[in-house]
Target: Tetraspanin-8-like
Amino acid sequence: MGRIHICVKRTFIFVCVLIGIISTLLLAITLFGHGYFHQSEEIEEILPGIVVLYVLEAATLVLSIFGVYGARKEKKWAVVLFSVGMSLASLYLFVECVNGYQSKHEMEELTREEHLAMMPLSGANQTDLEGLYNMQTNFKCCGLVQGYQDWGTDIPISCLCSDEDSTDFKCVAPGNNTRFVIHYHKSNSSEDDDHKGLMDENMLVYEKPCLPILISVERSAISLGIGIFVALTALWDVGVVLAITILCQMRRKVDVPPVIFTSQPPQYRELCDTAECLT
Model:
């Protein structure tokens, strides 16, 4: 029984340390992401989620410290605090995973509607164009739905397929009535430079549109996030089960009556036979 208690105790301490390390890494990633999106226009929308992550990660980090302390010092209140806190955190994360899975299709439809609202791309505002240029450069795509045809007669230079990309990505030749437009920031060039064309019949553009690729990447990111949260929930549940096991062992240890050993021989009286006692 003592070996089982030690094994459970060591496993519980290991799980608590692992939870603390993961919480610290997630806290650092959240802090980095907060700093990265601090100047972005989307910060107001994602700020409540960032605050929730701060609270959840800090709470699990503190609870893991209480768990290690309670197991090593055999403090019942610390183990109880760990089990209750991690149970609540696990329940909250499980609910968020279910909500995230249910809203995955809604988020995909919202992304599709937001980008289709930019059509026609020739009339999109400067902020949307900046995002489209970056997306085309990163995803090696052109346009949103119908490829380079979404840009009409003016195709941006971000759709241009280089010699290296032509071997890894499908590229096509645009029509004869199209011309490539070099995009410059307004602070670095004049309005005429923003519409300077590169006329070359040998130029190729990316064939695939960007919207399906963007939705696929978003779907993969959501699935990855849900998978990570499910794994964290399972790890926290393991910690809760081990904490309850340790509490049960502590209770049994308290209920066992103490055994007292003494070095003095017991006092007894020698009994005699009936015949000897009568004489």
The first helix runs from residue 2 to 36.
